[in-house]
Amino acid sequence: MKFIAPLLATSLVLALSACNDPNAEQAKRDAAAAADHAGDAARNAAESAADATRSAADSAAAATREAAADSERALDNAANATAAAAQDAKAAAKDAAHDASVAAKDAAADASAATARAAQKAADHAEDVARDARQEANEAKH
Fold it and tell me: Cβ atoms within 10 A of the Cβ of 34, count?
């Protein structure tokens, strides 16, 4: 668009200079033709700029649609991964709860067995003490 102003100015200078020339009519026609060419060039430049703008807008819209589709796919993948992670966490929690339950039952059984052994040991000791006491009582009688 910057070339239009000098072209129009040149056409005007030719037209003015032609007024002083004996061939003024030809110069006027040349100036008019130059002005027409300048106008055509300006229209062509404007049409080319408009076409380039439309093309750029179409490309930008296509890129935006593609980016939106990529974003949607990424969000879908993230949602699926989150759901899978939640399922894995649920399964792991269930396994951990089961393991804890088994461990608690094993600990209770071990504690019960230890208590039974301690009670048996205490009973054995009480029996030994009672036997010794009987023996001493018998010896004291004789």
Answer: 17
* 49: CB partners within 8 A, 6+ apart: 1
With contact defined as beta carbons under 8 Å apart, do 25 and 15 qualify?
no
Tell me how far CA of residue 134 lies from CA of 41, 123, 127, 139, in angstroms. Answer: 136, 16, 10, 8
Residue 97: both structure tokens together: 């709860």
Residue with tokens 């037209």: 15
Q: 21: which DSSP letter?
A: S
| Orientation of helix 24-141 relative to helix 4-19, angle to 10° | 170
* CB of 42 closer than 8 Å to CB of 1: yes
The ranges of the chain with pLDDT < 50 are: none
pLDDT at 112: 93
